[in-house]
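fwd from M.: "can u put these together and see what the complex looks like"

so here's what she sent:
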Amino acid sequence: MTADPSYLPDSASFSQITASVADPVLEQRFGLVWWIGFAVAAALTLTMIFSLVWLVTFGVGIWGVNTSNVWGFAIANYVWWIGIGNAGTLISSMLLLTRQRWRASISRFAEAMTLFAAAIAGLFPIFHLGRPWFFYWLVPYPDSMTLLPQWNSPLVWDFFAIASYILFSLMFWYTGAIPDFASLRDRAQGRAKQRLYGVLAFGWRGSARHWQIHQAYYGAMACLGVPLVVSVHSVVGLDFAAGMMPGWNESIFPPYFVVGAMYSGFAMVVVLAAAIRRATRTEDLITIDHFDVMARILLMASLIMSASYMTEWFFGWYSGEAAERQFVLNEFRGVYAPIYWTMIACNCVFPLFFAFRPIRRWMPALIVIAVLINVGMWLERILIINETLSHAYVPSQWTLFWPTIWDWLLLFGTLGFFAFLFYIFVRVIPAVSIHEVKAWVSEARA
Amino acid sequence: MSGQRILFAECDSARSLVAAAREARRQRLRTVDALCPFLIEDLHEAMGLPPVQLRPIMLLAGLAAAAAMFGLQYWYSVSFYPLNSGGRAQNAWPSFMLATFETGVLAAAFAGFVTMLVGCGLPRLNHPLFDTPEAGRATSDGFFLLVADEDSATRTALSALPGVIAVTEGAT
């Protein structure tokens, strides 16, 4: 039996830990691989911008939504992106509260993933509106018509949830990064870098009083973060469940969505961790044990998702309602059945391989299964929307949704934008939480 | 604080910094500060730092904002602009709870962030401490106890503390 993993570098000194994280940022050691990836990501970002401009100019009809399926790709993408974003906060908050050592190496870029994913997710509810320039009507401001938003609408709750989530995540991430900016400030050689990180660090000195106050705030934020994540993604689930459509009107949706969010988010963290570990050469900080434990979480989430699907099938039948029973049968026999089976394979079958320890510790398998999970979760979001809206109560409204080129361009554009932000992140921000790793190392060696 | 002579006692580990701080307090040396590259759990207790009042402020701000948000929804739905949709209750408080909760959490987070910055005295990009060489090492691997250099005995007492490997002078 192997010893308990420490998730920490075996023998590195504190200054070596600082160096291994700070130097890739300060010395700008990124070569051709970074430039090629950055160019592709930049091109996709331009595609995204172009798609959005085309959308605002010519209207929502450029998407395939001229059917009963009015939510199309936009809301599926929204749910998928915000789901990915939620895992970052869960990693930061939940693992901090449960004092898991393996949090330290992955929390920084996981929280950055949250910020980027949540920001991208926020674009979709705005742009899927017929008149997106009126999105500010969701804000309760005193207007000339004395109208405030419809408080009973989950879409209004969405606005509050996403807005508070993005701002909360920003403050949480930034607070954790302040001491690391100070480390970079003190280590930087050039004046420009010293100034940049000096400003970002706010003048942090590492004073004991600073740390005391910092800990009070950071711990409190972690306590707030977990219920916030649960509430945000529950609200996203309620976008569907608070209505009465067949296949949507299920009370399992809020927790099912939260687990799905954790699931797809952790899968994305696995992919990002593999990339960052390779790019910044921090294999001793982001160890194979980290991937092992994340794979176990993915396995657990996969089992819960399987249980959720089975609950849906059971209650669809148990409800006795014709539309619900039709809905469940349609999932397996209808037009979208091949996509449904693919989703089941990606979400419920392939992750079962993580039950085997050698597979959990083998990078290619980890990355492939994690990507398949992300694909499967995207398909799940698509199916949640498509299955119900194409086959609802009124037969005369049964129409199918076919994505147009603009649907695909925007989806891949946002993927490129996410990568673009991460390429910049990895060059400017220290990707691992230096001070936390040192704190755990100090405690482990004491 | 400016122009004061400070002694920097460098310690070799987090544990020895805590021990040195405790001992310095016992010997009634005037500890000005301690510098370390990461959070050390027992340090503020060893130094006798006063408790932080941040979390009660966050709680108050969160509750106040939540109450305000709920009040807005309640007032609007019940009194100012009631809508009769199938005779449903005007005070639909279960639906109001979500925006209430989110606003409360955001206000608590923001209040805490501001309180943290104010309590730390940040942003303060220019501090006399940055002129000393020790400040740069404090964010990497240095553990320092800063004591006011009051008389000649202070330096001796400081060097004798457990875990102290060097004592240097500075002025802040």
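replying to her w this: Chain A has a mean pLDDT of 92.
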